Amino acid sequence: MSIPVRTSVNITVRSAAKINLHLGVGAPRDDGFHPLTTVYQAVGLCDDLTATLPGEQDAPWDLRLRVADYIDPGAVPVDDDNIVARAATLLAAHHGVPVRGHIDVDKAIPVAGGLAGGSADAAAALVALDRLWDARTSDDDLLTLAAELGSDVPFALIGGTALGTGRGELVTPLPDGGTWWWVLVPSRDGLATPDVYRHFDKLFPDAPAVPPPADELLDAVASGDPVRLARLLRNDLQEPALDLRPDLGVLLERGESEGALRGIISGSGPTCAFLCESSDHARDLAGALMRHGRTVVLVANGAVAGAHLVENLHG
Ligand code: ATP
């Protein structure tokens, strides 16, 4: 009998894109952040992050990126500015250990698309490196570190459908009675989130201090009825995003005229998200949009899990 010898340990974590079913935005706080009442949903468009311990001869830290063919690799930094590197540094400092790991990120979530792809990678890095280093970080500490990395990162850890308050970092899971089908249409050129918020401030100088609530929409989510949900979708960043990118308004109208229950801008855009009645409906709509010349049209369902371990993809 031979005993298998493990020469290296690989940890692969999958983490999902989000859309905002409700994004109520208030006037900027003293710290510059906008208060939000948001309903996040994690959808089945995912990045995979694999972390491996380096050998003795290897560099202690290495980050490699492989991107889907619709993503410009030049849009994502691979140095210390990558949010994965920032997550590693933060987790290591929390435990007082050196940063170690070879990281491979397989990106399918469009960059600067309003889908929180960077946040998904940050959440994946926290979960993977916590395992790789056997650091045993408590859930509360992971959520605190996540919030330091970005407002959407705590939700990327939790997934499902959830209410976000504060600047989005305070997350409460919600009852969700549906399987929701989305058609997502990314744009080649991203929209920088700070630019969209700046434009929001210009368009709405009298925004309320308390962001608009999502109460009715929460009932629709619990009911599982997509027709009801479609009526209640709301994104306060849609107007500024469309003002900056009028072409997106044309796309939203096209999707709705082709039968989407509703089209909205995802987060700060520019990705357009179309809610459909079923998987068949979503596939039909995707086909129609492709016939109208859109080359990248993705179908995803929600809600899916937050950052979680998956079977090893890298041997
Ligand atoms: P959000 O909706 O949370 O604002 P987004 O989907 O609009 O996010 P991201 O894809 O998270 O935007 O990217 C925002 C910026 O972060 C990019 O312009 C990119 O340069 C930088 N960035 C750093 N690390 C990553 C990463 N791992 N993946 C994607 N972008 C990253």
Automatic annotation (TrEMBL):
<keyword id="KW-0808">Transferase</keyword>
<dbReference type="GO" id="GO:0016114">
    <property type="term" value="P:terpenoid biosynthetic process"/>
</dbReference>
<feature type="active site">
    <location>
        <position position="18"/>
    </location>
</feature>
<feature type="binding site">
    <location>
        <begin position="110"/>
        <end position="120"/>
    </location>
    <ligand>
        <name>ATP</name>
    </ligand>
</feature>
<feature type="domain" description="GHMP kinase C-terminal">
    <location>
        <begin position="218"/>
        <end position="291"/>
    </location>
</feature>
<dbReference type="InterPro" id="IPR020568">
    <property type="entry name" value="Ribosomal_Su5_D2-typ_SF"/>
</dbReference>
<dbReference type="GO" id="GO:0019288">
    <property type="term" value="P:isopentenyl diphosphate biosynthetic process, methylerythritol 4-phosphate pathway"/>
</dbReference>
<keyword id="KW-0067">ATP-binding</keyword>
<dbReference type="InterPro" id="IPR006204">
    <property type="entry name" value="GHMP_kinase_N_dom"/>
</dbReference>
<comment type="function">
    <text>Catalyzes the phosphorylation of the position 2 hydroxy group of 4-diphosphocytidyl-2C-methyl-D-erythritol.</text>
</comment>
<dbReference type="GO" id="GO:0005524">
    <property type="term" value="F:ATP binding"/>
</dbReference>
<dbReference type="Pfam" id="PF08544">
    <property type="entry name" value="GHMP_kinases_C"/>
</dbReference>
<dbReference type="InterPro" id="IPR013750">
    <property type="entry name" value="GHMP_kinase_C_dom"/>
</dbReference>
<keyword id="KW-0418">Kinase</keyword>
<dbReference type="GO" id="GO:0050515">
    <property type="term" value="F:4-(cytidine 5'-diphospho)-2-C-methyl-D-erythritol kinase activity"/>
</dbReference>
<comment type="similarity">
    <text>Belongs to the GHMP kinase family. IspE subfamily.</text>
</comment>
<dbReference type="InterPro" id="IPR014721">
    <property type="entry name" value="Ribsml_uS5_D2-typ_fold_subgr"/>
</dbReference>
<feature type="active site">
    <location>
        <position position="152"/>
    </location>
</feature>
<feature type="domain" description="GHMP kinase N-terminal">
    <location>
        <begin position="82"/>
        <end position="160"/>
    </location>
</feature>
<dbReference type="Pfam" id="PF00288">
    <property type="entry name" value="GHMP_kinases_N"/>
</dbReference>
<comment type="pathway">
    <text>Isoprenoid biosynthesis; isopentenyl diphosphate biosynthesis via DXP pathway; isopentenyl diphosphate from 1-deoxy-D-xylulose 5-phosphate: step 3/6.</text>
</comment>
<keyword id="KW-0414">Isoprene biosynthesis</keyword>
<keyword id="KW-0547">Nucleotide-binding</keyword>
<dbReference type="InterPro" id="IPR004424">
    <property type="entry name" value="IspE"/>
</dbReference>
<protein>
    <recommendedName>
        <fullName>4-diphosphocytidyl-2-C-methyl-D-erythritol kinase</fullName>
        <ecNumber>2.7.1.148</ecNumber>
    </recommendedName>
</protein>
<dbReference type="InterPro" id="IPR036554">
    <property type="entry name" value="GHMP_kinase_C_sf"/>
</dbReference>
